[in-house]
Write a structure and sequence with these properties.
Blueprint lengths: L1 H18 L2 E2 L2 H4 L19 E7 L9 E3 L2 E8 L2 E7 L5 E9 L14 E3 L2 E5 L4 E6 L5 E6 H5 L13 E3 L2 E4 L8 E5 L5 E5 L14 E3 L6 E5 L3 E6 L5 E6 L12 E3 L2 E5 L6 E7 L4 E8 L9 E4 L2 E5 L5 E5 L5 E5 L5 E6 L2 E6 L3 E6 L6 E7 L12 E3 L2 E6 L2 E6 L2
Antiparallel strand pairs: 1-3, 2-33, 3-4, 4-5, 5-6, 7-8, 8-9, 9-10, 11-12, 12-13, 13-14, 15-16, 16-17, 17-18, 19-20, 20-21, 21-22, 23-24, 24-25, 25-26, 27-28, 28-29, 29-30, 31-32, 32-33
Length: 404
C-alpha cells in the first residue's frame, strides 16, 4: 500500500511538472491556466504571500513568459529595448539589448510578450521588428522588419501582438497589402507563404492571431484594422472575411474560440460579435452582435456558457456566450485584465487592485482583493500563473506571489 501510494505521489508530481514546463501569451492564448492545481480558494486580507519582486525593468506593458526555470520579460531604458532573463527566485541571469523600442507617444516602452519554442526566443518590438534568438547562447539568429520586409505600416501606439507558432510555421500579421498575414519558417525566418489583405487599406489591428484546428480546414484567425479574417494554415489562402472596425481601427484583444464559435471584441463604439464557422471552416455566419459590449486591452474569459470581462461602461460584466445577453454589469472593481485558473477568475484592475472572483452569471462575486503597491505607471500587463505562483508586471517591477 505504501509503495502504491508513493507511486501515485511521484506520478502526480511528475505529471504536474511536465504539464507545466512553460507558459506564453495568456497561457495558450485562452487566458485559462488549465494545468494549475492546488491553488488557494481565498487569500488573506492583505493578499497572498509576497515571494519576491524585481525592480529595474524600465517602461513596459509586456507580460512574462516562462520556460522551465527561466522567466522572460522585456523592458525599456533610454530608447532601447531589453530582454531580461530571471531565475525562479527573481534573480537576474542575463540581459540582452535587442534594439530601439517604442517612444513615440505618451506610453513608451516594450509591449509584446516573448514567445519561446524549441530552444528559440521570439521578440517583437514596438517598432515592428521581429527578432529570433537562441535561448541558451542568446545569439541573434535572424530578424525581420515589418516595414522593410513586408511593406507594412506600424500601428498608432506601437506593435503589440506576439507571433503564433504552429508546427514549423511562425505566423505574423504585418497587415501589408501583399504580406497581410505571413507564415515564416520558425528556424530560418524564410517565408513559407503570404496572404494578401481583404482590402488595400486594411492594416494590423494589434490583436495576436489564434489557431483553430478542429475544422475541416485548419486556420489562422486574427483581427485586422477593418476585418476579422480566417486564413488556411496550409497555404495562406483567405477563407472568409467579416467587416469589423471602429473609429480608431484598433482591436487589441485576442479572439476567443470554442466549438465552432468565434468571439471577437473591440472598443470605441464597435463592441463585440459572435461568429459561427460553417462549411468546415470555409465560411462564417453572424450569430449575434452586442455594440455595448466593449473591451480595450484586458481580454475576456469563457467559462461554461458565459463570457467574463471588463470595459463596457467601465464595468465588469458577464455575457451569455450563446445569445450575447448581458447578465450583469458591475463597477465594484476598476476595469482591467482577466485570466482564470481552477475555476476562479483573476481580475487585475487598472487602478492597482488584484481580485480573486468566483464565476457567477448572476453577480460579480469578489472573494478577496488586495492593492498592488510596488511598481510604476499603468497596471496594464496581463497576470501570469505558473506552478502556484502569480506573476504581476507593474511597469518597472515584476512581482511574484505564492498562491498555492
Amino acid at each position: 500500500m505504501k509503495r502504491l501510494s508513493l507511486f501515485y505521489i511521484l506520478f502526480f508530481v511528475s505529471y504536474t511538472l511536465s504539464a507545466q514546463d512553460g507558459v506564453q501569451w495568456r497561457y495558450d492564448r485562452t487566458g485559462i491556466y488549465s494545468k494549475e492545481i492546488g491553488l488557494l480558494k481565498s487569500w488573506p486580507a492583505n493578499g497572498p504571500e509576497l515571494l519576491w519582486h524585481f525592480d529595474g525593468l524600465g517602461n513596459g506593458y509586456s507580460s512574462v513568459s516562462i520556460y522551465k526555470n527561466k522567466i522572460f520579460v522585456t523592458g525599456y531604458h533610454d530608447g532601447r529595448g531589453y530582454l531580461y532573463i530571471l531565475n525562479m527566485d527573481g534573480k537576474l541571469q542575463d540581459k540582452v539589448d535587442y534594439g530601439t523600442e517604442w517612444d513615440s507617444d505618451g506610453y513608451i516602452g516594450a509591449r509584446s510578450t516573448v514567445i519561446h519554442a524549441e530552444g528559440k526566443l521570439y521578440i517583437v518590438s514596438g517598432n515592428a521588428e521581429l527578432f529570433c534568438y537562441d535561448m541558451e547562447s542568446l545569439k541573434l539568429l535572424w530578424q525581420k522588419h515589418y516595414k522593410e520586409d513586408f511593406i507594412a505600416e506600424n500601428t498608432k501606439h506601437g506593435w503589440n501582438g506576439p507571433p503564433l507558432i504552429v508546427g514549423e510555421k511562425l505566423i505574423i500579421a504585418p497587415g501589408g497589402k501583399e504580406y497581410h498575414v505571413v507564415a515564416l519558417n520558425k528556424s530560418t525566418g524564410d517565408i513559407i507563404w503570404s496572404s494578401k489583405g481583404a482590402t488595400e487599406n486594411d492594416m494590423s489591428g494589434y490583436a495576436t492571431p489564434i489557431y483553430i484546428s478542429d475544422q475541416q480546414v485548419p486556420q489562422v484567425v486574427t483581427m485586422m484594422s477593418d476585418h476579422i479574417i480566417g486564413v488556411d494554415i496550409a497555404n495562406g489562402k483567405l477563407l472568409w472575411v467579416h467587416h469589423h472596425t471602429n473609429r480608431f481601427r484598433e482591436h487589441p484583444n485576442t479572439p476567443v474560440y470554442s466549438d465552432g464559435m468565434l468571439f471577437c471584441t473591440s472598443d470605441y463604439g464597435k463592441g463585440s460579435v459572435m461568429l459561427r464557422l460553417t462549411n468546415g471552416g470555409r465560411s462564417i455566419e453572424k450569430v449575434w452582435e452586442n455594440t455595448n459590449l466593449s473591451h480595450k486591452t484586458g481580454n475576456t474569459i469563457k467559462i461554461g456558457d458565459y463570457i467574463y470581462g471588463s470595459g463596457e461602461k467601465k464595468s465588469w460584466h458577464c455575457v451569455d456566450w450563446k445569445t450575447g445577453k448581458t447578465m450583469y454589469s458591475d463597477q465594484t472593481l476598476s476595469v482591467g485584465c482577466i485570466v482564470a485558473a481552477e475555476g476562479l477568475l483573476y481580475c487585475y484592475g487598472e487602478k492597482g487592485e488584484m481580485a480573486l472572483v468566483k464565476p457567477n452569471p448572476e453577480k460579480f462575486e469578489i472573494i478577496n482583493k488586495f492593492p498592488i503597491t510596488l511598481g510604476t505607471d499603468q497596471h496594464w500587463a496581463h497576470p501570469v500563473i505558473y506552478r502556484g505562483v502569480l506573476y504581476l508586471r507593474h511597469g518597472d517591477t515584476l512581482i511574484a506571489y505564492k498562491i498555492n
